[in-house]
TrEMBL record:
Name of the protein described by the UniProt record: Hydroxyacylglutathione hydrolase
SMART domains, per database record: Lactamase_B (SM00849)
Keyword Hydrolase: yes
The organism of origin for this protein: Roseimaritima ulvae
Keyword Ribosomal protein attributed: no
Gene symbol of the encoding locus: gloB_2
Length: 453
């Protein structure tokens, strides 16, 4: 059964309830397993002289065969995965690499360049702003690394792992970035049209998931390489590992610009290429519209005085886009996008004076417990929420109980672990699922502090 049919079945069955990406556990697992088809390892021939390697790591790498050499677009995470893709490419051409192109500076697209070389030093193309993918928030790298491990489920057991939404779960990561080669040719802000190895090729600046992104167009073959501004999932307009604000409006505009080319094939940064002019162009138009719709709805809500918590539950994709297989929330999430847009445009404060100087967590927990009739009563409510499979409420109550001097910290921890696993089982959004399970494992093993940060 196709992925979008599974989602429709889940909705009709009443599977989506308290969270936008929650369905019954068996449906969630079927959906994630079906999504695996998007990154099954293999070489996809997208045109007579164009080949894309899918599933050799999380991202895609592509080869364009020219007269006296080849062009490589993106180079995977490290030389181990890249060398396997390079070897697979050699079935189609043994010509030397004349150029390498980085669509943007995320590590899974630039770390394996050295594996494609065979003596010659090729030109390496990137944008003027190359290297700005993660913004300037290096000061918080320590916590971002922890959250990165959770988001991608890097430490989950085989039985817990499904995938990463737009990538397989198990990838070779120990050589991260060891094959990176710095750019030697800068693509100007106005873009670039040139010929490499006899291949007419165009570089178009297209900020979106990163500010340093560009997309590549082959005018004769009508093949478009989208980088990470398009892949088969609702886009990750905000990554829960922690990212600087991604300019959502620019992202939508960049994808709309791609659609104007009416490609015969669109090659995403992750997941399978989409072939056929109608299918490829429609996918890009829908993608741009989906991003813009979430942005516009959020802005309207902001100007109506609504806060991020309310908007995160109200904003939805337009009905005619909800069953599109490339817009199902396997990777990005509409509620996360809404919160990111709100914070990106207005900062943390929601305009409600109640939240201007909220109570500190320990004092608030004490008052909630008193309101419930005491710590024992609050603890009973927490246990009842878990028994009733009201997992989000159980989590929130556990976070109050943990602050109480007379609270049962061990019980609160146990409830939180079980509630996290209950939520994870219902999630078809891979980052959410991975984060829930990873955090539960950290709690259970005692890796986290007493306040569970």
């Amino acid at each position: 059964m196709k992925v979008f049919n599974l989602l429709v079945v889940a909705m009709l069955a009443g599977g989506v309830a308290n969270a936008q990406t929650h369905v019954e556990p068996e449906i969630a697992l079927k959906m994630l397993n079906a999504q695996q088809q998007q990154f099954e390892q293999g070489i996809v021939k997208v045109a007579d002289n164009v080949f894309t390697a899918v599933g050799y790591h999380g991202a895609n790498t592509s080869m364009i065969v020219g007269n006296d050499g080849v062009i490589i677009i993106d180079t995977l995470f490290g030389p181990t995965s890249a060398s396997k893709a390079a070897e697979a490419f050699r079935q189609y051409s043994n010509k030397p690499v004349k150029a390498i192109i980085y669509t943007h500076s995320h590590g899974d697209h630039i770390g394996g360049a050295s594996a494609f070389l065979d003596g010659e030093q090729p030109d390496i193309y990137a944008t003027e702003s190359f290297g700005s993918a993660e913004g300037v928030n290096k000061a918080v790298d320590p916590v971002k690394m922890k959250r990165n491990v959770r988001q991608f489920g890097r430490k989950l057991s085989q039985s817990e792992s499904t995938n990463r939404g737009v990538a397989p779960a198990n990838t070779h990561d120990s050589d991260r970035g060891k094959g990176f080669l710095p750019p030697t040719v800068t693509v100007p802000g106005s873009g670039l049209k040139t010929t490499i190895a006899g291949v007419e090729i165009e570089f178009h600046i297209g900020p979106g998931e990163t500010d340093d992104a560009m997309f590549i167009w082959l005018p004769k073959e009508k093949v478009l390489f989208a980088g990470d501004n398009f892949y088969s999932s609702f886009p990750n307009l905000y990554a829960i590992r922690g990212t600087a604000y991604r300019n959502v409006l620019s992202w939508s505009n960049s994808v709309a610009k791609m659609a104007e080319f009416q490609p015969q094939v669109v090659v995403p940064g992750h997941t399978m290429p989409i072939r056929g002019q109608t299918a490829a162009t429609t996918a890009l138009k829908d993608y741009s519209e989906a991003i813009r719709s979430v942005y516009d709805q959020t802005v309207r809500g902001i100007n109506a005085g609504k806060g991020p918590d309310q908007l995160a539950h109200e904003v939805k994709l337009p009905e005619h886009l909800q069953d599109k297989p490339y817009l199902i929330e396997f990777y990005g999430s509409v509620p996360h996008a809404v919160r990111a847009i709100y914070a990106g445009l207005l900062g943390w404060y929601d305009g409600n004076p109640t939240t201007l100087n909220p109570l500190e967590p320990k004092l608030k927990a004490r008052k909630i417990a008193d309101l419930a009739g005491g710590t024992m009563k609050l603890t009973e409510h927490m246990k009842s929420a878990l028994e009733e499979k009201d997992y989000q409420w159980a989590l929130e109550l556990a976070d109050h109980v943990k602050w109480l001097d007379d609270g049962d910290l061990k019980l609160a921890r146990s409830v939180k672990i079980k509630a996290l696993r209950g939520l994870a089982a219902r999630e078809y959004n891979a980052p959410n699922r991975n984060y829930y399970l990873s955090y539960a494992n950290e709690l259970e093993s005692g890796q986290l502090s007493e306040v569970w940060f």
